[in-house]
Amino acid sequence: MEKFILDTNLFFNMDANLGLGRKTEEIVVGLTEKITILKKNKKAQFFMPPKIVSEFLSFFENKEQDFIKSLLLQVTIKSPDISKVNLPSRVFYRLIEDVRERSHRGLNIGEEEIESSGRLFQGLKIESTKEFQIKIGGVIKKFRERYRNATRVGFLDSVADLDLIMLSLEQDGYLVTTDEGVLSWGRYFGIKEMPSQLFIKHIQGLM
What we know:
single chain; 2 domains; 5 strands
């Protein structure tokens, strides 16, 4: 029996190209139908860690909708048993190196944007707080975007992401996600992965 660990973004990132619709509800309903059949025929199991379920539910104002309940009734909601997963020391070396490099890049970006704001205000006479906020707003926005790209994109930046990897290891299952950071780190851990574009075709082959 094949096992699949599902990430939140499958249902909301239309670039996942699942081919089940263009709306989240259509995707959830379509995938639930396939999961139900495969589960009934004991062909596959589908898992979501509790933190991923919470993340999934956070996208809905009404969390009691039938299609949401139907999905959660069919997937196995399970936390990884981290006491049973052994991690190689190289993982920690890479993590520390990655954090250090990203911190350094973030610091450089901060310095560059401070210099940029200094040049922006050089020789200017600011008449009001509002005028200052308007001027500095663009600098802050640019800094936030650059800082986020330097420190978070492609990084394992949440316990929920780590749960996906740990559960994939524990269950020897395929991780299905569009998050490049999770995939990159998952490969380093040696997990199995299923490209989102091939996921539906693969499970249809099991039906």
